[in-house]
Amino acid sequence: MGYRAAYTRWQNDPDAYWLEAAQAIDWDVAPTQALFDRGNNSYEWFADAQVNTCYNAVDRHVNAGNGARTAIIYDSPITGRKSKTSFAELQQQVAGFAGGLAAQGITKGDRVIIYMPMVPEALVAMLACARLGAIHSVVFGGFAAHELAVRIDDCTPKAIIAASCGLEPNRVVKYKPLLDGAIEQAAHKPDFCVVLQREEEVAPLTEGRDLDWFDFQHGTSPADCVPVEGTHPAYILYTSGTTGAPKGVVRPTAGHLVALNWTMKNIYNVDPGDVFWAASDVGWVVGHSYICYAPLIHGNTTVVFEGKPVGTPDAGTFWRVISEHNVRSFFTAPTAFRAIKREDPNGEFRKDYDLSCLRALYLAGERADPDTIEWAQDLLGVPVYDHWWQTETGWTIAGNPAGLEALPVKIGSPTVPMPGYDVHILDEGGRILPAGELGAIAIKLPLPPGTLPTLWQANDRFHKSYLNTFPGYYETGDAGMIDTDGYLYIMARTDDVINVAGHRLSTGGMEEVLAGHPDVAECAVVGVADPLKGQNAVGFVCLTKGVDRPHSEITAECVQRIRDQIGPVAAFKKCVVVDRLPKTRSGKILRATMVKIADGETFKMPATIDDPAILDEIRDALKTIGYAGG
Ligand code: COA
Ligand code: AMP
């Protein structure tokens, strides 16, 4: 069946479509119905089913006789370590670790925070939680203690599972001080922490709170899989919104299983046993869906790569991993390719490797610019598929369904909506716009299986953030258009979210941090274009009256403040002092105009601007930090 036929089949009978897809999952109690409409724009999928995610990702492959098949390939160019874990070994490790957690009192519904780098144990921890029906929340290692503390207070975990350190090419990131700092800052305290000690950093354990990863399993029995309701949260993943308070995206168990399993063949075109590699991090949604869950659920081998596209040791590291591990489908963010292209524009490193195993490259996480797509296509000689999705959806909204039918690629478009997604372009009043017109991208409710049903303990915020603007629709926060062939184009965010090196960040959150500086009276943070990272955050601060210190001192403190409170991942390095911020007469800061000035784009003088002369001051300030032609 081709794409159009599949999409039409879904449109005509969504319940039948998803119940059929659900047959690929091993249920404790099979669903009799797919969608449950609970009223007030609240929908549930497979609510009458019982199932366990870990069973489907691990045990069922062992039970089917595939225990010897490789589940995880760990490849760490940073440490030089490599290993392979079979499904049978993974089952033992996960059941053993879950047994340790259970002995400490972790049961179904308990929250567990996981703060770990790219090591196979991160997947073991996630799967062990799923085995017990505990709800994990993985926090990216590049976040600072404060961000971890915010998440601890929001999801009130009974336990935190951490490693002693993460490894960046230039440094060992000690997790223990971050963990201790976060627990100290948080009002909620976990009952216990489990620490995986790594060779590069042995962390001193806190007596009475911290347990060693291996020791705490001694004398406990391996845990069995606990069946949970289809709607039970599999995990919470925090993502950036318009403020400093991150949104806790809830992932429902059954829809997650059904949808992710569906994507592995239909989108990524792999069969069980094939090696699939997503070069991301378990701290992001791409890592949840495509490093941990989807490949394992589908019976694929997943690659856990602890390295960077460049510098570990060189710009050929991706090609080495693909050829050495026989990777069939490869998924990464465009910024990784821009980094490789910058280091090795002629693709010299690629010549050293046989990449005949690779069938396609998938890009997502940020806009894929045409130059990067074309360069990757020429270099690899395989189709390059851009696809668009979000933490909230957990899987592709629009993509090229290569396993169903590879559609012609139109560079600049992530192709077409997947079955399950009824995508429209709306004007400000919520009216559907015709092909070719730019507007807000919205998805008609209900969203498909696997997408967020709510935000963790913040249902009002869920409605306010996503459902209230366009009644009957989910507001994606992206703007774009659909062409006459039904291809979607993603142009920009409609909110204060920016995307730096494929990392989703909140400028509002950064402004809250800068505003906390004692010398800062007012501030604005905007995302300006960056040839490598897509966007970069730039801060403008106005000082409190009477402050008479060198500006360089204050801006350096601002930079440090963001690193300390949000984390190095914010990559916030550019900050400048200005006398005033450009505003409308009603006091709204003209951030979009500031971005245009920084990017050197022409713009229309906002009709409501209070004092146009301020824009020249902004231009001059930007020049001092290398923007606006400076
Ligand atoms: N733990 C601790 N620190 C981390 C971290 C982690 N897991 N990940 C990144 N950081 C730090 C980096 O060390 C860097 O610190 P520095 O300011 O001291 O140098 C800072 O955060 C910014 O990191 P990054 O944005 O990654 O920049 P970079 O210059 O180190 O690397 C790229 C640039 C393009 C190579 C890199 O961003 C990359 O590989 N991107 C791929 C994006 C990706 O996988 N996105 C996931 C969504 S698909
Ligand atoms: P995240 O939740 O971190 O996955 O970020 C989701 C956001 O990243 C989307 O709302 C888009 O703004 C952006 N994004 C993701 N994939 C793409 C893509 N293929 N093209 C353009 N923007 C994208």
Automatic annotation (TrEMBL):
The AMP-dependent synthetase/ligase domain, residue ranges: 63-444
AMP-binding enzyme C-terminal domain residues: 510-588
Keywords: Ligase
Enzyme class, first EC level, given as a word: ligase
Acetyl-coenzyme A synthetase N-terminal domain span: 3-57
Gene3D superfamilies to which the protein is assigned, alphabetical: 3.30.300.30, N-terminal domain of ligase-like
One GO location term (cellular component): intracellular organelle lumen
Pfam families reported in the protein's UniProt record: ACAS_N (PF16177), AMP-binding (PF00501), AMP-binding_C (PF13193)
Entry's Gene Ontology molecular function annotations: acetate-CoA ligase activity; propionate-CoA ligase activity
UniProt cross-references to InterPro entries, sorted A to Z: ACAS_N, AMP-bd_C, AMP-bd_C_sf, AMP-binding_CS, AMP-dep_synth/lig_dom, ANL_N_sf
E.C. code: 6.2.1.1
PANTHER family listed in its UniProt record: ACYL-COA SYNTHETASE, ACYL-COA SYNTHETASE SHORT-CHAIN FAMILY MEMBER 3, MITOCHONDRIAL
Recorded family membership: Belongs to the ATP-dependent AMP-binding enzyme family.
Name the record gives this protein: Acetyl-coenzyme A synthetase
Organism: Pseudosulfitobacter pseudonitzschiae
Organism lineage string: Bacteria, Pseudomonadati, Pseudomonadota, Alphaproteobacteria, Rhodobacterales
Name of the encoding gene: acsA
